[in-house]
Please model this.
Amino acid sequence: MEKVEYIWLNGELIGWDDAQVHVLTHALHYGYGVFEGIRAYECSDGRTAVFRLGDHMRRLADSAKLIMMDMPYSADVLAEATRDLIRRNGLASCYIRPLIYTGTGGMGLHPGNCSVDAAIAVWSWGAYLGDDGITNGVRVRTSSYRRIDSSIMPAAAKTSANYLNSILAKIEATKAGYDEAVLLNLHGYVSEGSGENVFAVRDEVVTTPPLSSGCLAGITRASVMRIAADLGYEVREGDLHRSDLYLADEVFFTGTAAEVVPIREYDDRTIGTGGPGPVTKKLQETFFATVHGDVEKYREWLDYV
Model:
């Protein structure tokens, strides 16, 4: 990871190396925190725009509400801090990580005596699943770990603790030689990747698991669903078995970090012709044109720095 000059911490810009936490930070021990992953892109006109910044900050606030954590700053304050941080670090494109977490003040499970701290970091980050993954697709396997159920943890919240589930799935997949994992829910239906939403295409019908499957309400997911519908494809939310992915013409991931990534192989079965299909290519092309400011109808999604 390439250092930048500043990190925003509790309302102040401080040096990268000065952004430290105490070893008894409550969230470090118990995972009580919420976060977001956001991207800013350099647009074709030379300006920098954050993709759906307001929507990400609203989801951050929603995550905090779901785990009964009081946000120390409003979504609007955090959005303005993000824009300022990008400007001060002089980044044309970057990944953005807001984090709200419990600090020091107590070591029991109940966080009531702890501070609630807020940080925002930005850095340059390329394609999460690699440039080759974007172009040619990735190899994926079903994880032996099931996606957490909302009766166990608040699956709708983007919390630090929830991501142990994803970490285990990711480690397992990469150790076995795959690029990524797909997690099923407790009922055996497809939920999501370790950090991505999943889509299947069959006869030009685009289907993605419903939020009731336990998947996160992805902002890139929602964007791609609208783009697909606007392009004339039928878009459905529906339960998917892994066999539906095996037999699909195309399968792809979406996510802020991953962007839009074709899946060329799933559980050692070739998907379609073994490369990115025409629907995936069209959605990918339109998505990247959108985030770079080249699609007028989606300019509302861009928050210029």
Summary: The longest strand covers residues 94-102. The chain has two domains: 6-123, 131-291. The mean pLDDT is 97. The chain is about 30% helix and 30% strand.
